[in-house]
C-alpha cells in the first residue's frame, strides 16, 4: 500500500471509529437526565446533569496534559484507552448504581422501561466498543530512515534512547506552550467565544432534550421527540459544517459573517424556546410539567429550534477552528488544547447550574456570553485580516 493510500485508509478508519463512538456517547448524553430522572423513583438516586458536569470538568483539566500524554504513549493507544472509558460510561446505564455512575463519569473525562433501557444501552455500548476496536486497524506510516546493513545494535539502541528523550522533551514543551498561550491577547479574546460554545454545547446536548421530554403537553410522543430533536441537531451540524467548511477557502469576506449568522440563528432559537417551553422544564420532576410558557407548546417549533441550535453551533465551531489553525499554524496542538480546556470547563459549569436554574435564566446566560463572544471574535478576526494584508495567504487556510 502506497503512503497516500495508507493515509486515506487511516482517515477513513478514524472517521468510522469516531462515528460509532460519538453516536453512542452523544445519544447517551442526550437522554441521560431523562433516563436518570425516571430511575430516581427506585433505589437509584443521581443526576444526568451532575454526571455530565463531572465528565467535562475532568475533561477540561485533562486537555492541558493531553499533548504530553500523546507524545509519550502515542495517538493509537491513547484513542483506544479513551474509547474504553467511553464504553464504560455507557455500560453503566445498563444497571446503574450511583457510585459506578459517577466513577465512570470521572474516567470518561480522562478520555423508559427497565427492559427497553437495558436493550438500548447494551446496543450503544456495543456500538462504542466497535468504534474502539477499529483504532487497531490504523496503520503506522513507513519509516523514512532505513537502517543500513553496517549499523550496529549499539547504534539502534542509541536511536531508541534519543527517540524516548525527544518524546519527553516534546511532552514538556507542549505542556509549557499550553500555559503560555493562555495569557496571549488573541487567546484571551477567543476564550470568551469558546466559553459560549461550551455553554451552548451543554444546552443542546443535554438540557434541551430534557426540556422536550418533560413537557406533558406534547402528549405520549414527548419522549420520542428527544431522539427526533437529536437528529435535527445533527442535520443542522452537518449542513453548517459542510457548507461553511467547504466555502471558507473561497470566502472573500472572512469569518465574521459566518459567526454573525451563527449568533443570529442562535438568538432566534433562544427566543422561540423562551416562548415555547415553560421555565421549569429543565428541572421538572419525573412526572413532567403541565405549565405553559407564552404560547401553546408546539412540537414543530421545538424541532425547528433543534435544527437552529445545530446550525448555529456549526457556524461557531468551523470558524473557531479555522482561526486557531491560522494564528497557530506552526504549532497548533497547544492552541487546540487550550480551546478544548476552556470549552469543557464552561460546559461543566453549565451542566452543574442546569440542576438549579430555570430555563429563562439559562437562556439569558447564553445570550450574554454569545453577544460578548461574538464581539471578541470580531476583534481577533480583524487582527487576522491585518496579518493577511501584510502578506499572508488568508484564503489558503
UniProtKB/TrEMBL annotation:
Q: Name one Pfam family in it.
A: UNC-93
Q: How does it sit in the membrane?
A: Multi-pass membrane protein
Source superkingdom: Eukaryota
Transmembrane residue ranges: 12-33, 53-74, 86-113, 119-138, 187-205, 225-246, 258-277, 359-380
Q: Provide this UniProt record's keywords sorted from A to Z.
A: Glycoprotein, Membrane, Transmembrane, Transmembrane helix
* Coiled-coil blocks: none
A single GO cellular-component term on record:
membrane
Task: Tell me where in or outside the cell this protein is found.
Answer: Membrane
Broad class of the protein's primary localization: membrane
Question: What protein family does this chain belong to?
Answer: Belongs to the unc-93 family.
Output this protein's name. Answer: UNC93-like protein MFSD11
- Per the UniProt record, the source organism is Microcebus murinus (Gray mouse lemur)
The top of its lineage is: Eukaryota, Metazoa, Chordata, Craniata, Vertebrata
Amino acid at each position: 500500500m502506497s503512503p497516500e493510500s495508507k493515509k486515506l485508509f487511516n482517515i477513513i478508519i478514524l472517521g468510522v471509529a469516531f462515528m460509532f463512538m460519538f453516536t453512542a456517547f452523544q445519544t447517551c448524553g442526550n437522554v441521560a437526565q431523562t433516563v436518570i430522572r425516571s430511575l430516581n423513583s427506585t433505589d437509584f438516586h443521581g443526576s444526568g446533569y451532575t454526571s455530565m458536569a463531572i465528565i467535562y470538568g475532568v475533561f477540561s483539566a485533562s486537555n492541558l496534559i493531553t499533548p504530553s500524554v500523546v507524545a509519550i504513549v502515542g495517538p493509537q493507544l491513547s484513542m483506544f484507552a479513551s474509547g474504553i472509558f467511553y464504553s464504560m460510561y455507557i455500560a453503566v446505564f445498563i444497571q446503574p448504581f450511583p457510585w459506578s455512575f459517577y466513577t465512570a463519569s470521572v474516567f470518561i473525562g480522562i478520555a423508559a422501561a427497565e427492559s427497553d433501557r437495558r436493550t438500548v444501552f447494551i446496543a450503544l455500548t456495543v456500538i462504542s466498543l466497535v468504534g474502539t476496536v477499529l483504532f487497531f486497524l490504523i496503520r503506522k506510516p513507513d519509516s523514512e530512515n532505513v537502517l543500513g546493513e553496517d549499523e550496529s545494535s549499539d547504534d539502534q539502541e542509541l536511536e531508541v534512547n534519543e527517540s524516548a528523550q525527544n518524546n519527553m522533551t516534546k511532552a514538556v514543551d507542549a505542556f509549557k506552550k499550553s500555559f503560555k498561550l493562555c495569557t496571549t491577547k488573541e487567546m484571551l479574546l477567543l476564550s470568551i467565544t469558546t466559553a459560549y460554545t461550551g455553554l451552548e454545547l451543554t444546552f443542546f446536548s443535554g438540557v434541551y432534550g430534557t426540556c422536550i421530554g418533560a413537557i406533558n403537553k406534547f402528549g405520549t410522543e414527548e419522549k420520542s421527540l428527544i431522539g427526533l430533536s437529536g437528529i435535527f441537531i445533527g442535520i443542522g451540524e452537518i449542513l453548517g459544517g459542510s457548507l461553511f467548511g467547504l466555502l471558507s477557502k473561497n470566502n472573500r469576506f472572512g469569518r465574521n459573517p459566518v459567526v454573525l449568522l451563527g449568533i443570529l440563528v442562535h438568538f432566534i432559537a433562544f427566543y422561540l424556546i423562551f416562548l415555547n417551553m415553560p421555565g421549569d422544564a429543565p428541572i421538572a420532576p419525573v412526572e413532567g410539567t403541565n405549565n405553559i410558557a407564552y404560547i401553546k407548546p408546539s412540537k414543530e417549533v421545538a424541532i425547528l429550534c433543534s435544527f437552529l441550535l445545530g446550525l448555529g453551533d456549526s457556524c461557531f465551531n468551523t470558524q473557531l477552528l479555522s482561526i486557531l489553525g491560522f494564528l497557530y499554524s506552526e504549532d497548533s496542538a497547544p492552541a487546540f488544547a487550550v480551546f478544548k480546556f476552556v470549552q469543557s470547563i464552561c460546559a461543566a459549569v453549565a451542566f452543574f447550574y442546569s440542576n438549579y436554574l430555570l430555563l429563562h435564566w439559562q437562556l439569558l446566560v447564553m445570550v450574554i456570553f454569545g453577544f460578548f463572544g461574538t464581539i471578541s471574535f470580531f476583534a481577533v478576526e480583524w487582527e487576522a485580516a491585518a496579518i493577511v494584508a501584510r502578506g499572508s495567504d488568508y484564503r489558503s487556510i
